[in-house]
Amino acid sequence: MSEINFEGRVAIVTGAGAGLGKTYAIELAKRGAKVVVNDLGGARDGSGFGTNAADEVVDEIKQAGGQAAANYDSVATVEGGEGIVKTAVDNFGGVDILINNAGILRDKSIVKMEEHEWDLVLAVHLKGAWCVTQPAFKLMKDAGFGRIINTASGAGLYGNFGQANYAAAKIGLVGLMHSIHTEGMKYNIKCNTIAPIAASRLTEDLLPPEISSKLDPKFVTPLVMYLVSEENPDSNMIFNCAAGWFSRTAIMCGTGTTIGNADGDISAEQVRDAWSDITNLDEIKTLGNVNESFGYLGKLLQ
Ligand code: NAI
Questions:
Q1: What is the distance between the alpha carbons of residues 4 and 168, in angstroms, rounded to a whole number?
Q2: Per annotation, catalytic residue among 24, 158, 166, 187
Q3: Can you tell me which atom of ligand 1 is nearest the CA of 123?
């Protein structure tokens, strides 16, 4: 069996001081990558700052004979994103792999959520991925190679109580993936999204203990390693992953129905009466980009 290796590759893992990100950084380094271990080192809710988290992971990698550099910037600002990518360039000469992983939680029900809780969670997860991706993408484009992972969540893909800010940010990362894929494919830049479940600081009081013991972050890492490897042929996909369960999930489009010929008005009653056809998902397809949805207007375009 040939081994996946990252010799000669430079990887950035954001939020790599703990949890899932730490396992990615260590495994990437074990397989030969030079790794930027980014972590702000704050609390679970995004408050505070500390250098220890990133330093400890860098030490662990170096002690095992790997190469790594620490970065303590927040992903949530443009300057922070540029600083993270600069750490990769200054220490290792570029960036080939980016894992957008940093995350926090500020859970509240919709009625109780305050503006700053919405803003901070969106800033770390969604804007944060953008802030690091943009400078990394520029270098990947010039190099003709890039592998990017966005980290979504079942809360964003499927829904969860008390996580409006988090869910909105996480599904936003799927939209960002579509754009990275569409603009990156001619430069061999692939982007995929994972929706992991793992026992970590983030989930310590959310997961039932009997399940938690099975959800070691190390079970998510193999999928991420494959997705960021040269061997991975696929892009623009979303994967569930937890405790050894790996499954593709997707945004699908139903065939639907066409009312009229776009030559007159359509009434709300016509929509009501066609509701079972509009909501029918018996024949569904993934669409490669928005233009493919025009294909469903075939009857009108003939
Ligand atoms: P974690 O709390 O163990 O690790 C997240 C790391 O991100 C922390 O070390 C933290 O210091 C760092 N971080 C937070 N804000 C940052 C910022 N502004 N800049 C740089 N670093 C920052 O959490 P975990 O579970 O490892 O989560 C990793 C990712 O996976 C997150 O995006 C999370 O939303 C996502 N996720 C995790 C799930 C789980 O079951 N653990 C479920 C679904 C998604």
A1: 34
A2: 166
A3: 18
Q: Convert the pLDDT of each residue in 177-207 to its tens digit.
A: 999 999 999 999 999 999 999 999 999 888 8
Identify the structural domains of the chain with CATH numbers, from first to last: 10-249 (3.40.50.720), 252-301 (1.10.287)
Residue 85, ligand 1, Cβ within 6 A: no
Backbone angles phi, psi at 219, to 5 degrees: -80, -15
Task: Report the C-alpha gap between 120 and 40 in whole angstroms.
Answer: 14
Query: Tell me: the pLDDT tens digits for 139-183?
Result: 999 999 999 999 999 999 999 999 999 999 999 999 999 999 999
CA-to-CA separations, 73 to 37, 84, 131, in angstroms, rounded:
10, 7, 11
166 is catalytic: yes
Instruction: Using the atom order of ligand 1, give the atom closest to the CA of residue 128.
Output: 18
